[in-house]
Amino acid sequence: MAFGWIDAQAEQRRRAGLVRTLRPRPADSPLLDLASNDYLGLAHHPEVVEGAAAAARTWGGGSTGSRLVTGTTELHTELERELAAFCGFEAALVFSSGYAANLAAVTALAPHGSLIVSDAGNHASLIDGCRLARGTTQVVGHADPEAVGKALRTHAGPAVVASDTVFSVDGDAAPLDALAAACREHGAGLVVDDAHGLGVLGDGGRGAPHAAGLAGADDVVATVTLSKSLGSQGGAVLGPARVIDHLVNAARTFIFDTGLAPAAAGAALAALRLLRREPQRAARARAVAGDLHARLTAAGLDAVRPDAAVVSVRAPSPEGAVRWAADCRTAGLAVGCFRPPSVPDGVSRLRLTARADLTEVQLDGAVRVIGGTRP
């Protein structure tokens, strides 16, 4: 029977407590949201919503084609200019998603004969970029610059090191200074995914590379998403102009994908301008994360100290994590639930988003629910 093996895999997932289901949310959900990636609380901000609406009214519902045909509007190039300037890079290139941006950066910068050194805790999009690239990939221990240097010493040709700046599971930050030093010692490029750093880390939310003094370097490329701190959708690659020009000519997820919808570009541009005008939002997100962590640990929960806006709480098992998240939901709190294979260490977690717009009362309520429903 065609696709008969699917039933066997479905049964395996059920027995392991790893079944995933879609849960459509209403526009006016009564739940307190600690599950989304809307770090700065901008997804429903009137200026961001109007940015999307105005772009749709001007440019239409879709971009109408790939970026190299009809899918590049003046709005896309305006967003690229302002995003690069804000983050401190020479140039930027906007993609339909952060996932597509990571695939582009890794595959286009790791040709045949090259080495990719990839952190074991990297996001799936970087991992898939490594799988699709023509270079050889070596996975090294999590946040281990010495292992990176050792891997680079084994290869005489071109090389790149790929790492998240803030890892999505526990919210811990990569040692960017040490990674850059290892790369420069061996003439390798550094590709970092700043999806969870943009809008939260750095001066006014300019991102982890900017905070580390790496923005604008000729050997550093950063990818970002527009769907987290900027409350929109899409992604971008930031780097030297010659790297961006290379992506335009070599990155398959740029050449063959339909361009980002104008509404998403308009929303992201409005959010970026709002962040530039209100830089305190980044510091507020970090403060809320620290406060949330302190409250959780004071309640006796096993929470990981955050380096940005992600706070994770360890769960006893995949089934326990699912039940815990469901009980939180019943009590009016939406939390993320990370289980294998999404977590590289096999430890299931609740994943919480410390949004900049959360109040003290909301934090108190959230910790009360999480502590009261623990398995």
Question: Could you walk me through the main structural features you see in this protein, from its secondary elements to its overall organization?
Answer:
Helix content is 43%, strand content 15%. The protein has 375 residues and is of the alpha/beta class. The strands form two sheets. The chain has a seven-stranded mixed sheet with strand order 2-8-7-6-5-3-4, with helices on both faces. It has a four-stranded mixed sheet with strand order 1-10-11-9. Helix 2 (46-59) runs antiparallel to helix 11 (262-277) and helix 4 runs parallel beside helix 5 (124-132). The model has no long low-confidence stretch (mean pLDDT 96).
The span between the termini is 41 Å
The total count of helices amounts to 14
User: Quick one: biggest sheet?
Assistant: 7 strands, mixed
Query: Which range does the strand content fall in?
Result: 5-15%
Calculate Rg over CA atoms: 21 Å
Count of individual beta strands: 11
Would you tell me the structural class of the helices and strands? alpha/beta
Order of helices and strands: HEHHEHEHEHEHEHEEHHHHEHEEH
Helix percent band? 40-55%
Shape: globular
Unreliable spans are none
> What is the topology, as strand order, of the major beta sheet?
2-8-7-6-5-3-4
Mean pLDDT: 96
